[in-house]
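Writing this down once: the sequence line spells out the residues, with the fold written below as integer tokens. I am pasting one below:
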Amino acid sequence: MLTVQGQLVMLLAVAGTVLSTLGYRIRYQRAWHLIGGIDCRLLRDPDGFGRWVGSVGLMLGSISFGAAALAYSRPDLNAILGTSYAGAVLAGTAVLAIGSLRYLF
């Protein structure tokens, strides 16, 4: 059985794997069907939108891997790691939403 610390590291590593894989597939393999809620055929620049969403996915995956490494190497920082990680993910989501507007209209 994993300790709570091990579970945290594992969860962050799985999140990093999922986000990086999705980001890679969307950006480089043009798997736009993985983007939920948007029909890419109706966009002004679907190529640019796919590159943008994939890049943000790769960035969030990298942040998740960094948080997993930090949780593994410095368990004394768990109190601020959760808040910092949540803030980084929310900021990344805001950047994604605001940056996507240029491809919609």
In short: The chain has a mean pLDDT of 93. The chain is about 75% helix and 0% strand. The two ends are 51 Å apart (CA to CA). Helices lie at 4-28, 46-73, 78-104.
